[in-house]
Amino acid sequence: MTMTEQNNTICAISTPSGVGGIAVIRVSGHDAIAIADTLWQGKSLLEAASHTVHYGSIADREGNIIDDCVATVFRGPRSFTGEDVVELSVHGSVYVQKETVNALLSAGARLAERGEFTRRAFASGKMDLAQAEGVADLIASRSRAAHDIAVRQMRGGFSKRLSMLHDSLLELASLLELELDFSEEDVEFASRRKLYEQAVELRDEIQRLATSFDSGNAIKEGIPVAIIGPTNVGKSSLLNALVGDDRAIVSDIHGTTRDLIEDTVNIGDFTFRFIDTAGIRDTSDTVEQLGIDRSRRAIGRAAILLQVIDAVNPRTIEYADNIAGSQHLITVINKTDAASSDKAKAIVGQTETIVEVSARTHDGIERLRDTLTGIARTLLAGSGDIIVTNARHYQALTAALPPLNRVIDGLTANLSGDFIAQDLREVLHHLGSITGSVTTQEILTSIFTRFCIGK
């Protein structure tokens, strides 16, 4: 059975598995209301108006009461899937959930596959593919920032921007076609210069959307923050203070941290993924050296670097000058409860940001958290109103850039319009793959099987 077969009625538990106060079982399809009504004891659901809620009982095919229940009726096309939908809210007993689903299956429904409800919404034109993926991102969101981006995508913000780009590309293609049709006439529908400027504007917008992926993916998955510095400066203590847990082993012995230790925590509107790295030093210990090598690789992947300096015994680190320009460096002077920060400031010199803390007493930790969220807001603000968080969308956008650059080069070189139009069609294909106007069965299956069964 594949998700392309929409002539039958499906059901599934839409709330998380396990025991809870309430569980919701969703039923969708042509016979959804009729099937639910065969198990219903109360006012007839067949006679119920759309978007109405009813109290009654749910029973098995033999008439044995399973549970008191609230049934919500949505008549297509005014429903999530575009079909008739009934949502049965029962008590969250695992037994009640199982028996309710079994009763629906006995009455003629079948168990939904992963993502099948959302796929039916896509097939019914209730949402495009980018919006459907926004639903998945909303469910998976772990912070307010990730939630807000997913909501905008689910409500069509990204799709509207793509639609505008699509319309502009079609206009460009139309003008080129007219140019070909009237090539022997003394008629100019649009100057080559005008077409060139329009193509450059489109290229710049697609490039901006693609560039936003780095920030968008970091906000979605957790902004990577590497805690770096020499051995025994308090990196592990700082990690524990930031995440509020004894996540890392703390010791006065140099080289205690021999591997990367990661933990995620929400600070303000953002999720941060902290990476406690092994201290950088010369060592003959093979295992410790492996940890140091991993630390260097982690530094390259981080969006934010917390360079920890010991106020008692300040030392610089050899890789501080090799930090990429796109990375944000915060110098954290630790152990300020035991010594003045003056010596540390003197060897650090001019840096972008300095925060003084004591990981032991937690003094200054809140200021450090505020600094981190301030940088996170700049990542969000610098990416514009539409932010790309989906790797598939990013790949499609980057794939659209080479043919669009060929369009620009062709207009500059005054190539024939038929060659340029061919490249334009390729750009339209890549953009159409994001919203689903151009797609394949394999892509759809790959996307929707990532959803939970009840969605």
What report would you give on this structure?
This protein is of the alpha/beta class. It contains 14 helices and 13 strands. The strands form 2 sheets. Strands 3-4-5-6-2-1-7 form a 7-stranded mixed beta sheet. The protein is flat.
Question: Which tags fit this structure?
Answer:
455 residues, alpha/beta, 7-stranded mixed sheet, 14 helices
Unreliable spans: 247-259
Oligomer: single chain
Q: How many H/I helices?
A: 14
- Alpha carbon gyration radius: 29 Å
Residues in helix, %: 40-55%
Q: Distance between the terminal alpha carbons, to the nearest Å?
A: 18 Å
Can you give the mean pLDDT? Answer: 84
* Number of beta-strand segments: 13
Strand content: 15-25%
Q: Mind summarizing the main beta sheet?
A: 7 strands, mixed
Overall 3D geometry? flat
Kindly name the structural category: alpha/beta
Taken in chain order, the helices and strands follow as EEHEEEEHEHHHHHEHEEHEEHEHHHH
Read across the widest sheet, the strand sequence of neighbours is 3-4-5-6-2-1-7
Summarize the structure.
By secondary structure, the chain is of the alpha/beta class.
Topology record:
Elements: E1 10-13, E2 20-28, H1 32-39, E3 40-41, E4 52-59, E5 65-74, E6 85-92, H2 94-106, E7 110-111, H3 116-123, H4 129-140, H5 144-154, H6 157-181, H7 192-221, E8 223-228, H8 235-243, E9 261-267, E10 270-276, H9 286-301, E11 304-310, E12 328-334, H10 342-348, E13 354-356, H11 365-381, H12 391-412, H13 417-435, H14 441-448
Helix pairs in contact: 4-5, 5-7, 6-7, 6-13, 7-12, 12-13
